[in-house]
Amino acid sequence: MSTTAGTRTRLTRQQAGRPAAPVRIVHLGLGNFSRAHLAWYTSHAPDAGEWGIAAFTGRGPALADLLRPQDGLFHLVIRDPARDRVELVDSLSAVHPAADQAAWLRYFADPAVAIVTSTITEAGYHDEGGRLAASHPDVAADLDALRADPAAPVTTAPARFVAGLLARRDADAGPITFCPCDNMPHNGDVVLTVIRDAARAVDPTLLRWIDANVTAVTTMVDRITPRPDPGLPDLVAAATGTEDAAPVETEPFSEWVLSGTFAAGHPDWAASGATFAGDIAPFEERKLRLLNGAHTLMAYAGPLLGCQTVGEAIAHPRVGAWVEDWWREARRSVPLPASDLDEYVAALRARFANPRIRHLLAQIAADGSQKLPIRVLPVLRSERDAGRAGVASCRALTAWVLHLRGRGAPVQDAGVHGWDDVRSLPLPDATTYVLARLGVYDPDVAGLVATLAEEMA
Fold first, then answer.
1. Are 15 and 105 in the same domain?
2. Which of 92, 96, 175, 398 could share a disulfide with 72, CB 3.0–4.6 Å?
């Protein structure tokens, strides 16, 4: 159907004939990925009418301001290599800005709410060496605020979770499950740990209630979701005749693996294509190392050779060859059958080359100090333990060192603030400095990275 701007219909639930489901899931960190993944899986569940999501933005109110006038509805544009598919997603029953603490506490106090999901990236959980980074200024300020007033407005995720649980305990609202949806190994354990550490600092009596009423599920999530193309609203309007201020685009592929116990039930996500597994670790390692590790390599190496997108990088003769080297090296540390890994890598080649997905390398390059320790360093350690050099792993590290020295995409990484020596030191010394910051003290690794840096510089 073709329309003009003047004939577009405003997107609302009344117009679409999609009543809102009762809220039973609260989500922190509403963004493009969570809408293409969590919201999509939930909307496709056969019992979706019983599982509405109340979603809170991670920082500012901009996305909430766009979605509230259209009652949380949005269109998902699935970029199949041959054509676009446009779907209306209706699982967001309410949308709030991050600062709406009153609504946050109100949902936690509601016995109908059974699940808390989150998509806030690795840094947002303030996990430091397996414990809450309680000395971080923002975390410390939030913990002080909650000690003074359990309903105080707070901004960090661990503090927000504890504030919600205090409200839930006081309301005697029953059990609840945390289900993080971020690219972190053991993300359920990470979330529960920072929650317990924050609770201990605010109100130690909450710990016993948490032990009796709170569970955490570990998940592995996968769906490439780039920033929406500026022309996406016009594409949706032409296809549907409706005005959507916040559509999302994504790839056809999606995967969601969950492991753990839901204390108060969950949507029938299995019917939507999710997998419930007893041991999620092999799936986590496959995704973090083969997909995310390749993304990390391309994000820093690609711009050195003029590439701006994943598609350009995988098609580039040198970068594409480096990615193949990475896959050969990384798969040796993934405990899954070779046939499974062959199939997964073949799918990655097709996904990365999808001409209808424009995934910017600069977007992937952000926060490398959080990503390399879980995507690249485990492969490097495995290679070194096996007596191999780990050339592909070192190449990813090399590209990151050059990135920190001002080559390629702009540096957007709070974890490297104060690393001024990276730019001022000679390249070999800068390499040693970066590796020491990452906890990599092997002199052979430092030498190999320095050599590769000279070749790539």
1. yes
2. 92
Beta-bridge partner residues of 257:
220, 275
Sign of the alpha-carbon dihedral angle for 26, 375, 190, 280: positive
**Whether residues 152 and 119 fall in one domain:** yes
Q: Is 203 exposed, middle or buried (0-12, 13-18, 19+ CB in 10 A)?
A: middle
CATH label of the domain that carries residue 10: 3.40.50.720
| Separation between Cα atoms, residue 281 and residue 247, nearest integer Å | 33
What are the structure tokens assigned to 212, written together? 């009796």
- Rounded to two decimals, the pTM is 0.87
pLDDT, tens digit, for every residue of 95-133? 999 999 999 999 999 999 999 999 998 789 998 888 999
Distance from C-alpha of 393 to C-alpha of 337, rounded to nearest angstrom: 22
Q: Measure the CA–CA gap between 51 and 265, rounded to whole angstroms.
A: 10
Return the closest-CA partner of residue 78 out of 308, 294, 354, 288: 354
The count of other CB atoms within 10 Å of the CB of residue 397 is 29
221: exposed, middle or buried (Cβ count in 10 Å: 0-12, 13-18, 19+): buried
Residues 100 and 97: their CA atoms lie apart, in Å, by 6
84 within 8 A of 234, measured Cβ to Cβ: no
Other C-beta atoms lying within 10 Å of the C-beta of residue 326: 25
- Whether 331 and 341 have beta carbons less than 8 Å apart is answered as yes
Question: 249 is written with which tokens?
Answer: 């685009």
CA-nearest of 122, 126, 128 to 141 is: 126
CB distance 394 to 322 below 8 Å: no
CB-based contacts of 14, cutoff 8 Å, min separation 6: none
Contacts of 316 (CB under 8 A, 6+ apart): 302, 305, 307
pLDDT above 70 covers a percentage of the chain that reads 98
Cα–Cα distances (Å) from 296 to 89, 229, 361, 393, in that order, read 30, 22, 9, 11
Find tokens 């490439």 and name the residue.
Answer: 224
Q: Would you say the C-alpha torsion 368, 365, 330, 280 has a positive or negative sign? A: positive
Q: What is the DSSP letter of 411?
A: P
Confidence band (pLDDT; 50, 70, 90) for 323? very high
Q: What tokens does 61 get?
A: 């109110």
Domain co-membership, 23 together with 94: yes
Domain, as residue range, for 19: 5-276
Tell me the two tokens of residue 175.
């059990």
CB 328 within 8 A of CB 342: no
Of 276, 295, 326, which residue is a domain's last? 276
Q: Which residues contact 115 (CB under 8 A, 6 or more apart)?
A: 24, 25, 26, 176, 177, 178, 179, 262, 264, 266
